[in-house]
Design brief:
Blueprint (H helix, E strand, L loop, with lengths): L3 H11 L21 E5 L2 E4 L4 E4 L14 H11 L10 H13 L5 E5 L2 H16 L3 E5 L16 H5 L10 H4 L2 E4 L4 H10 L4 E6 L15 H12 L2 E5 L11 H6 L5 E4 L10 E5 L1 H4 L18 H16 L2 H23 L5 E5 L2 E5 L8 H4 L4 H13 L2 E2 L8 E2 L6 H16 L1
Bound molecules: ligand KE4.
């Protein structure tokens, strides 16, 4: 049996930092990452046979739980018909028709291979449609690693403590304007300073990459109104929220319609899928119909579409799953809030539906600046305690906990017991 330590020693020789995505390296929590061998339901097992109750869920895709039988069996059958054709398929038509029929504000959709690609394409489309160059984003929001989005970014960039990235040309970053989340005045100021130049506002309608931060009452509505007033497009980045906060995502949960929306994670059922969609008049600017180019060898890949389609049909066909996810979220995050109060812990918790974050700061966390007051060393101690006790959390203060439909009350109560043990220390 090989160990995670042995694998990491080999990995760092041939993969930068030993990982294919930085946040997996466990650097901010000071541990060797656990190399995972298999997963089922709410659990993952590492290469040494240790079982963990999983609150990463592949960073969101595994909303039904790991190794869902319907998804697995459909993927196995699809593989028998061939892996990839590089040609149009009936399945791509069916999944696009299904999404357009079941998500009210989606009139057309284009499949890509990651959330990053979905955002990059949606922003190029917004610029092409409006003829404007500048984009407004929010400090602490993470929209993937395309050049113009690596400005004041969240997630692994924030974890690394470098909110921008080397290698992004000034010429690219200069058209990315940064506002403060939940601060409409900071957005209006950017429009006043850049009249007629802003193509779009892109926002995580619930931020989940500086930890979970909810939109203040009126924030999303204010962005909608500003875009309408200024002739800019509103882009909801629902890579995390989409098909999680409701089947129709944050748009459904908060009753706000964006002009474009980006998806990832859940839409792929665990396979590499992203998508962008929205208003027909905007989407028809995409090649080969319109002048905005975007392409992808494996976009709409039949295996990936199979996994995503089966997952979406499971979710749409069983709306009670969302009631369960909300109940589970209330039990876990409400339970944590109670424990934090009972033990007078210098922490705060934000949550909505099946995602939430415990911040190691006594301050309310409403934006990037307040999230940054968190004691990341205290979080690292919490993370290590929970891992040692069989609970896999995201290895960063600035990520979310993800609950799946496979997390029953028993495992949630076990989680609360472990957290209480930590708080008692
Ligand atoms: P991907 O390119 O990683 O599929 O999606 C990028 C992305 C876009 N928009 C939002 C709101 C996102 O959360 C993400 C990716 N999320 C991170 C987790 N916070 C992915 C995990 C990782 O980077 O390894």
């Amino acid at each position: 049996m090989t160990t995670s330590t042995e694998l990491m020693e080999r990995a760092v020789q041939v993969i930068p930092g030993g990982v294919n995505s930085p946040v997996r390296a466990y650097r901010s929590v000071g541990l060797t990452p656990r190399f995972i061998e298999r997963a089922d339901g709410p659990y993952v097992w590492d290469v040494e046979g240790n079982r963990y109750l999983d609150y990463i869920g592949s960073w969101g895709p595994m909303i039904l739980g790991h190794n869902n039988a319907a998804v697995r069996e459909a993927v196995i059958k699809a593989c028998e018909r061939g892996m990839s054709f590089g040609a149009a398929t009936e399945l791509e038509v069916e999944i696009a028709e299904f999404i357009c029929a079941t998500v009210p504000h989606i009139e057309m959709i284009r499949m890509v291979n990651s959330g990053t690609e979905a955002v990059m394409s949606a922003l190029r489309l917004a610029r092409g449609f409006t003829g404007r160059d500048k984009i407004v984003k929010f400090a602490g929001n993470y929209h993937g690693h395309s050049d113009c989005m690596l400005v004041a970014a969240g997630s692994g960039v924030m974890t690394a403590g470098v909110p921008d990235s080397a290698g992004v040309p000034a010429g690219c970053a200069q058209d990315t304007l940064t506002a403060a989340y939940n601060d409409l005045d900071s957005v209006r100021a950017l429009f006043d300073e850049n009249p007629g130049q802003i193509a779009a506002i892109i926002v995580e309608p619930v931020a989940a990459n500086m930890g979970v931060v909810l939109p203040a009452p009126g924030f999303l509505e204010g962005l909608r109104a500003l875009c309408d007033e200024q002739g800019a497009l509103l882009v909801f980045d629902e890579v995390i929220c989409g098909f999680r906060l409701a089947y129709g995502g944050a748009a459904e949960r908060f009753g706000i319609t964006s002009d474009l929306v980006t998806y990832g994670k859940i839409i792929g059922g665990g396979m590499p899928v992203g998508a962008f969609g929205g208003r027909r008049d905007i989407m028809e600017c995409m090649a080969p119909v319109g002048p905005v180019y975007q392409a992808g060898t494996l976009s709409g890949n039949p295996i990936a579409m199979t996994a995503g389609f089966v997952q979406l049909k499971e979710l749409h066909g069983h709306p009670e799953i969302y009631d369960r996810l909300d109940q589970a979220g209330e039990r876990l995050f409400g339970g944590i809030a109670h424990l934090l109060e009972q033990y007078e812990a210098p922490c705060t918790i934000n949550h909505v539906g099946s995602i939430g974050s415990t911040f190691f700061t006594p301050n309310p966390v409403t934006d990037y600046a307040s999230a940054k007051t968190s004691d990341t060393e205290a979080f690292a101690r919490y993370f290590r305690f929970m891992l040692d006790h069989g609970f896999a959390l995201a290895p960063s203060q600035f990520e979310a906990m993800f609950i799946s439909a496979a997390h029953d009350d028993a495992v949630i109560d076990e989680t609360l017991d472990a957290i209480e043990s930590f708080l008692k220390m």
